[in-house]
Design goal:
CATH class of the largest domain: Mainly Alpha
Strand content: under 5%
Shape: elongated
Oligomer: single chain
Number of helices: 21
Length: about 400
Amino acid sequence: MREPRCNNIVPSKNLWEIAIDFLGKIDKKLIDFNLKLAYIMYKVCRIEKIPYNVTSKLVFLSCFNDVGKLYELENKTDSTIETYLFLKYFSPVKDYTIILLDQNKTRISIPAIKGLVYKACKDYTNYLLKTNNKEEALKAILENKSEYKLIDIKALEILTKKNDLIYEFNSYHYKTIVYKYISKMIFSGKEKNKFILMLSSLFEMYSAQTLYHSKVTAIISYMLAKEMHLKNKRAKKLYIAGLCHDLGKVCIPLKILEKPDKLTDREFSIMKKHVSYTKDILNSKMDYEIVELAYRHHEKLDGSGYPNKLSKDYLTIDQRILEVSDIISALIAKRSYKEAWDIDKTIEILDDLVNNGKIDKDVVETFKKNQKKILKTTDDFTNQALKTYEKINKERENLIRKKNNNDAKMVQ
């Protein structure tokens, strides 16, 4: 299956706002630092006259700086390596991610990048927030000028002289500028899909058991919509909703998300809140129909679902498709609390849900009729995802080994 192009479904500006809100749910201090770094990066790039296409990628990297902190303890590595791996394998700017690892000797063939601009801006931002004094921050950079290139230092000198950076940080001027800049950034349909997948993968990429649940849900939803002759735009909205439907899980504690046993009533009440968190993240940034699709994917036709116990009269066929697709995706995958079900067991469970009046019969019958084609597509994707997972682990091991060797040489 070719990935559907969704250029006309989600504006690039809205994707950025979703990303920033999403990261803010994880760590407000992290996103606050990243936006300030993005502001310094933007200003320095303007001073150095770095072209827009490169500046936009550097601002992107700044906004996701140190997102790897989510995984450094789990994987016994450091946040720089984890940030690099995550953005390399899941973001639209993978060709630029080497900058994160190789700041002292960047081999990337982008002539417009003037040496160590990323490192210079990141260090300057750190000094600025630590000292709360722009002159002191510049002094710290000058004391270590051998680590940077002269052009970067001169740009920071100009920035320090012309801008009241502490006031701009305290007044949230930096956010206004960064939001205004990123609102003009344009992503292709393929890049937009990858951007959304990047967000939905934050809690999935390091777990083979849950890898790409959102993408599989999106694929099944899209294929069922096409088989049920929904218009192309509706099928694309279902695809986007599938990618986004679990974003709110970022607000749920990992000990609940990854619990190997059945959740307690209290834990399940917390887990159910993920649909409301998803709506909060997407609201006013996504098409209303996409938001409602994501928000209602756990409702049931008999009114026993959540969050609002809606009955069949209030659930569209599109919402019913996503509900069934999410169930199928969960059943055919290995999860922390269960093994993967085979197709016979999956269909048996789906039929039971239909007979109990919980999910739509026509959607299930469409799946059963087209199960071979749908499962082949999801199997192909899952196999590719597992290969990606293996590549990530292998590269992580190599990077850790290299880092340990370098650290040992420095000690000697």
